[in-house]
Design goal:
Layout lengths: L1 H9 L6 H33 L2 H12 L1 H12 L4 H17 L4 H19 L6 H41 L1 H17 L4 H8 L3 H21 L1 H13 L7 H6 L5 H17 L19 H16 L7 H28 L13
Length: about 350
């Protein structure tokens, strides 16, 4: 047993929820962002501006999604170069065979392939052959075996959530908004979760609302402590910066969570805000305005397909209120109330930026 532990330590193979559920999952979201999401944004700009070259650039970027995710995951797992480069083939196969649930298939299969590749890396004199051979063989065989089932399961869960949201928009609006919003602030990736489940449509809109409630809410609520630096760091960066303060005083999280429970059903019931862009955008909120860009690209896709006749002033009003105005006003008011009753004290929301 000690020899096995020593071998795993030497190979930097760590079986832990943090490495797989936080580090690898977060890296997968970055890979998605650097391929599918950016590609979607570029191609949308090209379509709207009538620039064919930008459309082509965006399409190439979107085509690299599986490869980018796998390499990002391999980087998070601290893979040696030969393993890391070999994972590109694994990611491409898993994403393709996983269908709509491809991102989750890429995550699971890449982890197995990466750890197998790390185990044999630099163990033979023909490492340049053995390491990529094992990594690719294990990864692609698992992709052929598992990916269709993983993808189908993830898609089924995502479809169930979206179906339930259409059926019960008020209740599910609250549930999806609160859960995805909390995931965004926790040290896990809400974007990767939404991408893995293919969360779009009305449920995607609720997810965007929940993320915006956390990001804009914390940005406005902590303005007196950190002023403009904190406003932009959290408002278009991430509310995860408040995680340390939440651990010290969990009550500071109440305004943002309550706000997401309010804006979620407003999104689903009042404005019927759909997020029909890339699913990863559902879990991004106002980070780089990716959530809003996702909603807009979804509008354009719906108009192009005939599902939507035009983008209306009511659509824009809903986007503005749900993503920016209501989170700021509601969270600020609730934060002020909690300050008055002593649940939030001076500097409880202070950030070291």
């Amino acid at each position: 047993m000690e020899k096995i532990k020593g071998f795993l330590k030497r190979k930097d193979i760590e079986f832990s929820a943090r490495r797989y559920g936080i580090d690898a999952l977060g890296a997968m979201a970055q890979g998605l962002f650097a391929s599918l999401l950016i590609g979607t944004i570029i191609s949308t700009i090209g379509e709207q501006a009538g620039i064919a070259a930008l459309v082509e650039v965006g399409n190439f970027a979107k085509g690299a999604t599986g490869y980018a995710m796998a390499i990002a995951i391999g980087h998070a797992l601290k893979c040696p170069p030969l393993v890391l480069f070999s994972l590109a083939a694994v990611g491409g196969a898993a994403n393709s065979l996983g269908g709509a649930g491809g991102p989750l298939a890429v995550l699971i299969i890449t982890i197995f392939a990466a750890e197998c590749g790390k185990a044999v890396s630099r163990e033979t004199k023909i490492d340049i052959l053995v390491t990529p051979f094992v990594t690719i063989l294990v990864g692609i065989l698992l992709a052929m075996w598992w990916a269709p089932y993983i993808g189908a399961a993830a898609s089924a869960v995502g479809r169930a959530i979206m179906w339930a949201t259409e059926l019960a928009p008020f209740f599910m609006g609250i549930l999806v908004s609160v859960i995805v919003g909390i995931a965004l602030t926790l040290p896990i990736s809400s974007a990767a979760i939404c991408a893995a489940l293919g969360l779009t449509g009305l449920a995607g809109g609720a997810a965007v609302a929940g993320c915006c409630a956390q990001m804009v809410g914390f940005a406005v609520m902590s303005f007196r402590e950190k002023r403009w630096g904190g406003l932009f760091a959290q408002g278009i960066g991430t509310s995860m910066l408040q995680m340390g303060n939440i651990v010290k005083n969990p009550r500071i999280w109440i305004p943002a969570i309550v706000t997401s429970a309010i804006t979620g059903p407003i999104s689903t019931c009042v404005f019927r805000m759909n997020m029909n862009g890339a699913a990863v955008a559902s879990g991004m909120g106002t980070c780089g305005l990716v959530g809003q860009i996702g909603v807009y690209t979804g509008w354009m896709n719906d108009v192009a397909s005939g599902c939507k006749t035009a983008v209306t002033a009511f659509d824009w009003l809903g986007l503005l209120l749900v993503c920016f105005v209501l989170p700021g006003v509601i969270c600020w008011a609730l934060g002020l109330l909690l300050r008055k009753i002593g649940w939030i004290k001076e500097n409880d929301l202070k950030l070291e930026l």
